[in-house]
């Protein structure tokens, strides 16, 4: 029997202050009575703060976003200190903002009491304050203040390292107070304590369910989940029954994973679809984009929101639902968790990231110009002015459209104007001043030319000069435009659009950015898009012969598409008649009839025997709510419909023009999907209560007793499908999990865990070996289910601009059709599911990929990860990389990995303070040789000498050790060159093995003569970078050393005379720490990878003047780069948990774009991304 759904009370007003849970809001001193679970940490902080009074050094409190740092300081520390010190204590809490010194002066008032200053959100010093001098002044003021008061700086963990740039904070960094994840006991107190204090009760089992969802039940969990827990508790309280918080209310809220997104979506719906673009503009203005760390919230003055066209009622509604806060005259997002947990907001940001970054930089630069007395030296010129102008014009156009016509429904997907609202007065004045200066310069040039025309010779000379200048101006303009379009290409959520934009950029000007964007198209799958619908596409299905597909859309239409030639797919016809959104469009077994299902409570049958002239046959009425799905019996003659009214109806359609209902089956919850078994004997329905019901419909007029399959989670079942053999069933849960069932035994036989995102549709390939899952995270995941007990993720298709709503395999299994809420359908080549892109992505790690190394023969890649493992990959075919083995044994993050010169051994180093030596002569069966345990801190690097007889290890303990590998199973310490130093991040032997380079956290490089490894001799010790040296590599001839540093540069050093290294060049361009560097074997190119998420490829034809050849945009920090021996493939390691192979073949990329991207860029897309140039799509066909 299917589980019953309990009734859930309506949502209470969130403005009710009686709630003991604060949602995303920070707990303040007034909330101390309901602040539970942090008593031990509070006592520790009280002791640390009492020590800090007058000590001369601030106390740094750090922890990940969402760990509860601000709450423990405000609701824990401050009330506890006030209780102990009573009238002696004066507390000031501030956030730095754009001008931290001014904020400090404003908040401090003279007084005789002892002062506790809490600087909350200290990361704003780095995100909101753009002036480095102002930052240093503020830090100096805090240091001075700490000599007479207690100063507490609360900083997010991902910004903790930024503090090292300020000497006044270095001592405090040695002993920070860390706010880590809460234990199970503490979480239980945080859940139950506030309820008890407020006189509320929790339904038995609710706490355990919450703890299980948090992931605290005996397994490691992240502190970042606390705001999600707090919001889920608030949402559950809003749906409480009398004085009891129930499990039904919790589930209705969306649970830990989805409560926040659910609340945000409900707020948006309450405002109305016409306000969505305004809400988008408001929210993205409140996000600070960061290319080196996660995006953060930022405070914006209410006065600056007015020019953006944000009505106060929109702001007030988000404040009412506690998603935004307003303090004094500023607004901000209540917590960064909203940025991470609300898919729609993430999509708004990522879809318009390039424009948003330009817009953000404009705001910062305009403020700097204002503070510097409007000095013209700070004004934009050339490409930066062009980029800012383009964004300003979009803003003006979008704002004008909204003002004249009102916001368009559906515009929130990220079209024009999705960049964050209008300009402030200062920003407009800044741009106006830059334009005036450019006009003045142009006027001066013209005046000079006019004066020279008095003399004929001068006139001719001036004419030639002007012609050259015109050519140069045109070239510079083209380069600026191409660079801007390349940025849009890299930031486009729609991979097909991004690919075409990259080709447009490359044709306009062959800039490094355009070349990199074009090469990037080879690194990810691209689906051929089908454009035509005017709303989200809800469904896609193939005609049985595979030559036609049908799509259903919320624009109330279905469309038929000819896909017989995949490179020239085209729309054939449009089916109109439904009064509301369509959710299904399915072909009959003979392909002559199409059934559609709609929100208008009806299903319809259409004669599509002539696809160009579809004809309505009949309307199926009777359901009292949305018809959610429809399915034909494979035997023909019977149609099933299911509805949100909880009923399944079976129809006799022997004559499709006169359908007759023959059976009605009732269930207790909404029904989301229906499917027949291949033999037509069984019918499965998917229910919102998480159950799947199987009916025997051998006699459709008298269905047999049902069998109910209950999913093990608390999600609803959204999709159901039979495998081609009819023996297995797959169901998709709103939790993201996929379940495989044995139909005969009615039991679950396998689970694919998914990634926690709502799965809309699941479908088998024709051979039953693959399962495709379409999800709300804008991906389709392909699972190998050959062994149903152990489903294996094969690949993930990305490149959608919104939720993927459905997927369907072609009858031959070679193509996958998908539909998406971005208003498009797409066709993907999945003839080889492991090869969906020209160059492979390697995504099996569950933590960041911190380092990589390619074997000398180029056939094997090793990756080291935060998941404590090293993986070996076969990359002999770079388009079809496959996992060979996993090296386990480290007990903490693996930081480094390196092959020996013969490729038979591997060294890995870890945060567990060990290095390990591995025999990888058989990559599919590696064995551990030895574990080196000498270091007392993280092992940052390891490298073999070219002859393989010695290995070097360096560590954060400041030590370098050389080890004798005569017996690789028992390495012997040979020497420890030099005294203990700062962190030693990098080590590298020269190609002849006679020299060793070591890179230090002090910015120094030390060169050692190790021709006698037992007695190293120092050759040189020189300052190479202004901050840590993070990576080193030699050119093949050993004459050049390349270094990379956290100062954002790479540098080339001439080692012809190693006792006197000479700097050859400084490679500028990265905006974050450069953590990796690699030469090609011939030394003609160099790759640098940085925490700004980019890889730069440098042309070293003239080493004294390196030129950027290409800029590749990655998804996250780039932690490692390495070329294959032929230099044609580059491998990169990413903080997002993947390694990626990149092709260096620009011509291949240029040819491939139009082969795979489908319909050409539209005129409206062209006007948005390529303004000012005549429409000239790069791919005319399709």
Q: Could you explain how this protein is built, in words?
A:
The protein is α+β, with helices and mostly antiparallel strands and 1182 residues long. Among the domains are: 38-181, Rossmann fold, CATH 3.40.50; 582-829, 7 Propeller (Methylamine Dehydrogenase, Chain H), CATH 2.130.10.10; 841-1144, Methylamine Dehydrogenase, Chain H, CATH 2.130.10.10. It contains 25 helices and 68 strands. The strands form 18 sheets. The chain has a five-stranded parallel sheet, with helices on both faces. Strands 13-40-39-38 form a four-stranded antiparallel sheet, with no helix packed on it. A hairpin with a 7-residue loop joins strand 64 and strand 65. The longest helix is centred in the middle third of the chain and has 36 residues, at 456-491. It is globular, with a radius of gyration of 32 Å. The two termini are 51 Å apart.
Give the termini distance in whole angstroms.
51 Å
Q: Taking strands numbered 1, 2, ... along the chain, how are they ordered across the largest sheet?
A: 2-3-4-1-5
How large a portion of the residues is in β-strands, by DSSP E? 25-35%
Specify Rg, calculated over alpha carbons: 32 Å
Q: What is the name of the CATH architecture of one domain?
A: 7 Propeller
List unreliable stretches of 5+ residues.
1-16, 216-223, 401-421
Mean pLDDT: 86
What's the CATH C level of one domain?
Mainly Beta
- What is the share of helical residues? 25-40%
Keywords: Membrane, Repeat, Transmembrane, Transmembrane helix, WD repeat
Pfam families: nSTAND1, WD40
Protein name: WD40 repeat protein
